[in-house]
Every structure is written in C-alpha cells, then in structure tokens.
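In the laboratory, one determines a bound structure by crystallizing the protein with its ligand and collecting diffraction data. In a computational setting the workflow is compressed into a single prediction: the sequence and the ligand go in, and a structural description comes out. We illustrate the idea with adenosine-5'-diphosphate.
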Amino acid sequence: MNWLSRFEKEFLRKPGEHLLEVGITGSGKTQGLYWICDGIVNVGKEAVVWFDIGKGNEITVLSRFRSLKIFYPYECKVEVRGVDDVKYHPFDLVDEIWLELDPSRINVVSIEPFIDDPEVYSRIVGTIFKRLVRLSHAGEIYTPLTVFLDEFHNVAPGKGQGMTDNHYRIGAYVQKNVERLRSLKVRIVASTHGITKIRKGVRTSFNWLMIRRISDKLGQEITRLDRYLDIFQTLANDEAIIVYPTKTYSDKIKLPFYAIPEGARVDYIGLVGEEEDREELKLSHMVKH
Ligand SMILES: Nc1ncnc2c1ncn2[C@@H]1O[C@H](COP(=O)(O)OP(=O)(O)O)[C@@H](O)[C@H]1O
Ligand SMILES: [Mg+2]
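The predicted complex, in structure-token form:
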C-alpha cells in the first residue's frame, strides 16, 4: 500500500490517534503541522484547535484551510489583517475555549503571546488541558477534535527539563489522560525539537511519529538503525518520514509549503497582568510592601 494512502486511512481519518513530530529548529515542523491540519480538515468533520505560539504571523496560514475563530484573554487584543472572515472571542474563563469552539472554523487559542513567563504559560496550558479532559469526559464538547500544540515540551517536560515541581505535575496529569482522550476521540498533534525533552510516559503514548531533520543524538533516541540515522540527519526541509504504530518507517515523503497569505499579518496587543505589574512599579506600592 502507498504510504500516503495508509496515512490517510489509518491516521487522518481516524479520530483519537495522537501524533508527535520531531525535528531540529528550522527543519519544517510548523509546516508539517499545517500539512496535517490541511489533511484532517479535508477528510472529515473533525473540529480543530490550534495553540498559537505567536511566531511571525504563522496563524494566518491556517485561514487557507478554514476561517479562523481566535480566542484571547479579554484584557488583551489580537488583530488580524489581510484575512477575510475572522471571528474573535475574548475569554475570561478558559472553559470558554472548549465550550465555544466552532467546528466549522480553525479555533486558534492565542495566550502565549500575552504571557512573558514560560512557567506561567505552561501552568495555564496545563489547566486548559485538565478542563479539556473533564469537559470531554462529561460529553460537553464537540468531538472528534484535534488539538495542535507546537513546541509541546513546554507542556509535559521530561526529566531535568521542567522549570518547577508544578511543571512536572502537569506532565504527570497529561500522561495519565492522553489514553483517555484517545477513547473520547480527542487527539493531540504536537511538535518538539527533542523527544527526550518530553516526559517519557507521554511520548510513548503518541502512537504516530513524524520525523524531520534531526541531529545525531536525537536520532539515536528514536532508532538504533544506522541506515535510518543517516536518512534522518539529511532530510531536506520539505521531507519527512512517518513512523507507523507498527514501527514501520515510511520512505521519504515530500511535503508542500504553505505560505503566509499575501498581505496577512497579526498584531498582539497587551500582556496579561500588565496593570498589576504597573502597580508594583509605583514607589507608593514599594513603600507599603
Ligand atoms: N515543504 C516545504 N517546502 C519548502 N520549504 C520548506 C518546507 N517546509 C519548510 N520549509 C522551509 O523551512 C523553513 C522552516 O520551516 P518551519 O516549519 O518554520 O521549521 P520549524 O518549525 O521546525 O522551525 C521555512 O521557513 C521554509 O523556508
Ligand atoms: Mg516552528
């Protein structure tokens, strides 16, 4: 069977199948996530949520697949220009992300651009993840659902990679619940630049791997087969290898490039907690505390 038709049948058309994409920075990971998003949107009625990491207008590419609905903290603002039919949902409670998602759109969650502290951001994503598990278990959200998380090591850090104890607790929670999500037809499609940067019990529950160009050491974490190591290290930016749940490796697969639509741009305005931070800068505040 052809690699791509097998991928379509056993992954794209099968809700609940998790996938992890691994590759060094600049190897095409974000582009790979677009390709998967394109595929999922094309074959079925799955809802899509994409966590925005605020890198140079990247979310505007998603408007090629479906119109956007953008969730952001109510005290801040996202402004997309040069893209038609964008809906905005400023939220207060994180539950709104799951309860108000629109299956006919790509639901973009923009929080990271408004949080300076990566530890705080991880904690927020951890809470959002917990609510996803709770609400989908209670049957309150639209399924099937795919959640895209670029740079996933920030959410479930491996040994020695976490920033605080709490950070590891979030990882333990993710580990305990990824399998449950699968059965609820909710899947995670994530990327990382280091497979061991992700908690062991979490990375092993990703049935599917997509390999992009990786370094020597990273390669050995995935395979001990020299012939694959050579191939992994020399993959071009538009090439990937898919590892199927059966541990079969595909041939090199050529991926398309998805450009930012002409003239499209995103502005992120404000920071969460900015007002409080400003208070703390006042001398009167410093005198009292
Ligand atoms: N399918 C592709 N075809 C052509 N060029 C690509 C393709 N995928 C990625 N690239 C090139 O590689 C660069 C890095 O891709 P990107 O997805 O941003 O990498 P990463 O997310 O791993 O840092 C892109 O800006 C583009 O120039
Ligand atoms: Mg990227």
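The two ends are 69 Å apart (CA to CA). Keep in mind that any predicted model is a hypothesis to be tested, not a measurement.
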